[in-house]
Amino acid sequence: MENCENTSNNKVSFDPGWNDPPSFAYNASQTTTPNRPRNFLNKRVAFPLSGNSNTAIPPPMINLPPLLTTILPPVQIPPLEPKPQDDIQIDSESVLKEVKDILLEFLESSSELGTKAESIKKKIGIMEEMWLSGKLNKQIQIQMKDLACALRDDNPTEADDIHKALMVDHVSSISTWMPGVKHLIYHCIARSELLSIDKE
User: Fold this and answer.
1) Residue of 160 and 10 predicted with greater confidence
2) In the chain, which ranges are continuous DSSP H helix?
3) Can you give the pLDDT at residue 82?
4) What's the CA gap between 4 and 61, in Å, rounded?
5) pLDDT at residue 64 in the model
6) What distance in Å separates the CA atoms of residue 144 and residue 178, rounded to the nearest whole number?
7) Most buried residue, 16, 44, 142, 188, by most Cβ within 10 Å?
């Protein structure tokens, strides 16, 4: 029995085999071992950011066309040809009389304008003064003749198109008196619309 007790108290040291179960300590004093960090084997390994790597994909090579080294000559802009209306010879005073007579006749026949008629007549007077003093070129004079004839022939759409063209090309020359002519055009448009409604 003594031999048995001695063998139980003495620690037997031997190297465990590969398939031996682990030895557990059952003493309470041995159970309080410090916590050791575990080795997590399921963590991802970071990709190396530096260093020579043979797996790096080279950037794609783009075949660019060669740069132009020749200097192109400057573009030659042809001189502006004079408009056909610049070469037309017109009797400015007779054209003015025709335009003024048509506008005033249309104004007198438009009693619906009421108090606006006097203001429109003043605008026509300003046009006459600028016309006689040479401030309106031939293009304006010819287009005003076409506009007046369109009003006389009860064609307000054509008159309005001419009015818009004049405002685009010669606004600085006609802005003081064109609003009066515009009133006549709009009145002609309204009158033609009323006539078309009455016919229906």
Assistant:
1) 160
2) 2-9, 92-108, 116-132, 138-152, 156-169, 171-174, 178-199
3) 46
4) 84
5) 66
6) 10
7) 188
Residue spans per domain, the chain: 84-199
pTM above threshold 0.70: no
Give the DSSP letter of residue 18: T
Q: Which residue has the tokens 């005003």?
A: 144
Per-residue pLDDT tens digits for 36-62? 666 666 767 666 666 555 555 555 666
Cβ partners under 8 Å of residue 147, min gap 6: 99, 159, 162, 163, 166, 181, 185
C-alpha span between 102 and 90 (Å, rounded): 18
Q: What is the CATH number of domain 84-199?
A: 1.20.940.10
Give the DSSP H or E segment for 94. helix 92-108
Q: What are the pLDDT digits (tens) for 135-151?
A: 999 999 999 999 999 99
Cα distance between residue 188 and residue 44, in whole Å: 86
Separation between Cα atoms, residue 129 and residue 133, nearest integer Å: 6
Contacts of 9 (CB under 8 A, 6+ apart): none
**Per-residue b/e over 186-195, b at no fewer than 16 CB within 10 Å?**
ebbeeeeeee
pLDDT for residue 51 = 57
